[in-house]
Amino acid sequence: MHVMVLGAGLAGVTSAWYLNKAGFDVTVVDRQSAPAMETSFANGGQISVSHPEPWANPSAPMTILRWLGDDAAPLRFRPQADWRQWRWSAAFLRECLPWRTERNTAAIAALARYSREQLRALRQETGIDYRHQQRGILHLFFGKQGADEPARRADALARLGIAAEPCDLERCLAIEPALARLAQPLTGALFAPDDESGDAHAFTQALTRLLQARGVRFRYDTPIHRIRREGGRVIDVEVGRDDGPREHLEANAYVMCLGSHSPLLVAPLGEYLPIYPVKGYSVTLPVVDAARCPEVSLTDEARRIVCSRFGDQFRVAGTAELNGYDLQIDEARCRNLLDWVDSNFPGATDRSAAVPWCGLRPATPSNRPLIGKGKMINLYYNTGHGSLGWTLACGSAAALADLMSGTRPTPDFPFLATRFD
Ligand SMILES: Cc1cc2nc3c(=O)[nH]c(=O)nc-3n(C[C@H](O)[C@H](O)[C@H](O)COP(=O)(O)OP(=O)(O)OC[C@H]3O[C@@H](n4cnc5c(N)ncnc54)[C@H](O)[C@@H]3O)c2cc1C
Question: Is 233 helix (H, G, I), strand (E, B) or coil?
Fold first, then answer.
């Protein structure tokens, strides 16, 4: 069976990998000239199984209200004359109900645990190199939050089968000596020893090379304009450069992995996907003093900033903006990230050579990705991974390949429109 994967980001390329392994004949189509050139290009690098709690949780509405009007706040909401933004925001508020947060957290945790296993197996099978680190993730707390939040989180994670240990400063310094010069006193920390980090862009590009060697076809520079249907079936996708001729590409089945752009392509088919772009920023800096620069991936829980070390590069990422599909880089946002690096790890990196970037997280209100089949008989989804697309990539794609092969996937996760009789 010939499957066409639409999109060559993390979701698309990992889907191609597990579909190829399951025996499908696969073609991947993307508008860029290489894989992982959009949201999967320069993310925070964390395989963060220890952060399954979605943005939509009971404390989110008050936090967001407090941040309204503050341009330096980790989250910025810019109202648009766009019904999709309002519909998404209303659904987000609904997901903040305690029982929904609990259900979403459990589902994400199950998929994240499975995904890390799949990533490790893939690494072992292929020897793929993407500057990964298996040194855990250290969550840092400042101010009042540090007093009891690490212990509360550790208990909650233990119930989900995820190891995490509250730490004092001495233990933190043993795990990551570069924390010795933090700008603000640390009031608490949580260490998740099984978490990992790595460069998602390098991973996606290396996996693509392996797929090409296995006979998977990649069509780059191929913008998709339209998905055409006949009755309940997709018959082809219409592609072509804006100024060139159009072509129709056919397959037996199609997998939607277009990230934040997924809902735009399926809306004309009568399918609504609850995905909205949530913009985030990163800066990548060369390391100039390795001893002062963290090796262990960190999360600053107060400022919602994460960082990861990729060899001689240091990446720091954060911020969330609901601002439509705008991809302009706001220098003030990048400056905040750079100031965070300079104040906490002085002398570690070269600020003058920092490379700024922004990308659009394909976020669902619940933070649960959409995996499985929608209304069309031969159109599948693996999209909407929001802030956890790297963490969930391998597990989501392996589960999708199972679903398309008629097998029940391992994780206890609400896959779309799946019937196992
Ligand atoms: C600042 C930031 C930090 C992050 N940090 C982390 C982290 O530490 N850990 C983590 O787990 N996740 C993180 N994420 C989230 C993660 O990066 C995303 O969830 C993930 O990259 C989404 O992958 P994707 O394949 O769905 O989308 P994309 O990577 O955007 O892929 C979609 C592909 O579709 C193609 N495309 C789109 N429209 C068309 C069209 N019309 N025709 C043809 N091709 C098209 C694009 O070219 C692109 O290649 C972060 C995200 C951001 C923004």
Answer: strand
Domains of the chain: 46-84+132-195+276-362 (3.30.9.10)
Helix, coil or strand: residue 150: helix
- Which structure tokens are listed for 197? 């980090």
- Ligand 1 contact via 378 beta carbon (within 6 Å): no
Token digits of residue 395: 């597990």
- Minimum-distance ligand 1 atom for the alpha carbon of 38: 30
Longest pairwise C-alpha distance within the chain: 64
Q: Is 361 in the pocket of ligand 1 (CB under 6 A)?
A: yes
Q: What are the b/e assignments for 183-221, b being 16+ CB within 10 Å?
A: eeebbbbbbbebbbbbbbbbbbbbbbebbeeeebebeee
Q: Which atom of ligand 1 is nearest to the CA of 45?
A: 8
Does 321 sit in the ligand 1 pocket, CB within 6 Å? no
Using the mean position of ligand 1's atoms as its centre, give its distance from the Cα of residue 298 in Å.
Answer: 21
CA pseudo-torsion sign 7, 10, 11, 12: positive
Which atom number of ligand 1 is nearest to the Cα of residue 384? Answer: 26
CA–CA dist 236, 250 (Å, integer):
5
Closest CA to ligand 1's atom 27: 259
pLDDT exceeds 90 at position 420 = no
Tens digit of each residue's pLDDT (9 = 90 or more) over 136-148: 999 999 998 888 9
At residue 339, φ and ψ (nearest 5 deg) are -65, -35
